[in-house]
């Protein structure tokens, strides 16, 4: 028998620590934590951008500090994972603040995911792709919770979650209908290029939902068809392309044929192809700059024409 094997000595404090003091350690309280110890939530769906809103947040934090504490959970590898407050943390870094107030809370992955989503859905501006990923993350987390015993009663399933569809619960808490939540979750099946077009409002939300049913390779071919026609799909066109996919007939030629058809209201539109206009503008010009310049030149032409008629 090895007398000295696996001997674990407790510290003096551990030996004489009471149950009350142990429970007190678990109580949530605001701590001042260095920003270098705070790490973004894994697969955080909400972008933190240096836009005008961030600039205002930086100015506010520079004057008054971080007034609303972040929420984070301790990491096994050291440091803390931010659950709520990514923008405040980033703004504090930009403002040169080293320590921020944080509520440290013990949470499992699913609890942290749900809280992270709920906290960020309060933002005024959320991109469709952000909401889509957030709803999916929350839906997956709630499904996992519904399939295992709750913390309060390990012998029973959490009937609040199990007895109601998770999308319906998300709908109740978000203000969207259950059907709309499902539509947003569908957007996660879009390839990145189409998802970005939805965020930039180049493709409308409802047609994008229909396009999400296409296979990845079909979506790539659709981009070429869209570029060929120089037009965004209407809901009707997207539904017909989806039907082509379901029938196994979704070729690039078939999609081009659908996309070339005139939509209602298009008869009154004048469309210029970007390639045709490029030779008149510097290479650095964006489509929006080209459009603005065309309107400016047309205004000048009309004014010149009006002056000529007055003479």
Radius of gyration equals 28 Å
Mean pLDDT rating = 84
For the report, how would you describe the main beta sheet? 5 strands, mixed
- Spans of at least 5 consecutive residues whose pLDDT stays below 50 are 1-12, 152-163
The helix-strand sequence is HHEEHEEHEHHHHHHHHHHHH
Give the helix tally: 16
In whole angstroms, how far apart are the ends?
116 Å
Strand percentage lies at 5-15%
How many beta strands in the DSSP annotation?
5
Looking at the structure, what is the overall shape?
flat
Question: Percentage of helical residues?
Answer: 40-55%
Strand order of the largest sheet: 1-5-3-4-2
Main structural class: alpha/beta
Task: Supply database-style keywords.
single chain; 311 residues; alpha/beta; five-stranded mixed beta sheet; 53% helix; flat; disordered N terminus
Architecture overview:
There is one protein chain. The protein is of the alpha/beta class and 311 residues long. 53% of the residues lie in helices and 7% in strands. The protein has 16 helices and five strands. A five-stranded mixed β-sheet has the order 1-5-3-4-2. Helix 6 packs across helix 9, helix 8 crosses helix 9 and helix 12 packs across helix 14. The longest helix has 24 residues. It is flat and about 95 Å long. The N terminus is likely disordered.
């Amino acid at each position: 028998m090895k007398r000295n094997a696996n001997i674990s000595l407790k510290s003096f404090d551990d030996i004489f620590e009471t149950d009350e003091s142990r429970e007190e350690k678990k109580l949530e309280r605001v701590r001042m934590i260095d920003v270098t110890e705070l790490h973004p939530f894994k697969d955080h769906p909400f972008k933190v951008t240096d836009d005008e809103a961030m600039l205002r947040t930086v100015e506010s934090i520079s004057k008054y500090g971080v007034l609303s504490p972040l929420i984070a959970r301790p990491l096994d590898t050291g440091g803390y994972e931010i659950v709520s407050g990514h923008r405040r943390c980033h703004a504090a870094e930009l403002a040169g603040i080293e320590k921020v107030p944080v509520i440290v809370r013990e949470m499992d992955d699913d609890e942290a995911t749900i809280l992270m989503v709920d906290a960020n859905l309060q933002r005024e501006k959320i991109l469709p792709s952000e909401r889509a990923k957030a709803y999916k993350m929350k839906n997956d987390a709630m499904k996992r919770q519904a399939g295992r015993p709750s913390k309060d009663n390990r012998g029973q399933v959490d009937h609040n979650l199990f007895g109601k569809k998770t999308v319906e619960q998300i709908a109740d808490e978000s203000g969207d209908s259950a059907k709309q939540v499902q539509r947003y979750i569908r957007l996660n099946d879009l390839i990145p290029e189409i998802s970005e077009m939805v965020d930039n409002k180049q493709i409308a939300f409802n047609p994008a939902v229909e396009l999400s049913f296409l296979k990845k390779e079909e979506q790539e071919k659709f981009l070429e068809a869209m570029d060929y026609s120089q037009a965004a799909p209407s809901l009707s066109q997207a539904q017909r392309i989806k039907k082509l996919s379901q029938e196994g007939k979704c070729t690039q030629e078939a999609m081009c044929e659908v996309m070339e058809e005139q939509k209602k209201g298009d008869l009154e539109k004048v469309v210029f192809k970007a390639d045709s206009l490029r030779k008149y503008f510097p290479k650095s010009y964006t489509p929006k700059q080209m459009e603005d310049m065309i309107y400016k030149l047309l205004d000048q032409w009309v004014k010149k024409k009006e002056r000529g008629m007055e003479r």
